[in-house]
Amino acid sequence: MIHTDVHQYNNQQTAIDQRICSLLADYISKKLPEADNKLWHAHPVWFIDSNPIVGYSKLKDSVRLLFWSGQSFDEPMLGTEGKFMAAEIRYTDPEQVIENDLNRWLEKARDIQWDYKNIVKRKGVLERLK
């Protein structure tokens, strides 16, 4: 089930970005039914056992889909994001969202996880969970 705040976030976007966000939210929720979702740092994020797995955010020129452990996926279409293990892809049109790619990435997001939940407790050190 998609949290009401996520629907509100999606509805605040422009028409095309709203379609991208809603498409991503629906697909992520169906593919990861065990994941909880909410707005986290003002953006929709899905968590497994309180660990952030995947989320998206509206940037100036696109919608960024972010996988917290994505650098470990060995997926050339995902670009490096930040100094930890996150990777991203950016969309400007719903037609760019390829179901087969998204399906594969979400399976990897479930199976390959770094422990972001305890990163503060470990003073910025990430440990692999799966």
Write up this protein.
This protein is an alpha+beta fold. The chain has one domain: Alpha-Beta Complex (Aspartate Aminotransferase, domain 1). The chain is 29% helix and 24% strand. The chain has a 6-stranded antiparallel β-sheet, covered by helices on one side. Helix 1 runs antiparallel to helix 2. The model has no long low-confidence stretch (mean pLDDT 91). It holds the Pfam family DUF1801.
Helix-strand layout with pairing:
Elements (H helix, E strand, L loop, with lengths): L3 H8 L3 H17 L4 E5 L2 E6 L2 E8 L4 E5 L11 E2 L6 E5 L7 H13 L19
Antiparallel strand pairs: 1-2, 2-3, 3-4, 4-6, 5-6
Helix pairs in contact: 1-2
Radius of gyration: 14 Å
Helix-strand topology string: HHEEEEEEH
**Secondary-structure content class:** alpha+beta
Which oligomeric form is depicted?
Answer: single chain
What is the total domain count?
Answer: 1
Strand order of the largest sheet: 1-2-3-4-6-5
Level-1 CATH class name: Alpha Beta
What is the correct CATH architecture? Answer: Alpha-Beta Complex
By DSSP (H or I, 4+ residues per run), the number of helices equals 3
Question: Distance between the terminal alpha carbons, to the nearest Å?
Answer: 25 Å
Overall pLDDT confidence: 91
What's the main sheet like? 6 strands, antiparallel
- pLDDT < 50 stretches: none
Which word captures the global form? globular
Strand fraction equals: 15-25%
Share in helix:
25-40%
Q: What is the third-level CATH name, the topology?
A: Aspartate Aminotransferase, domain 1
Pfam families: DUF1801
Protein name: DUF1801 domain-containing protein
InterPro entries: YdhG-like
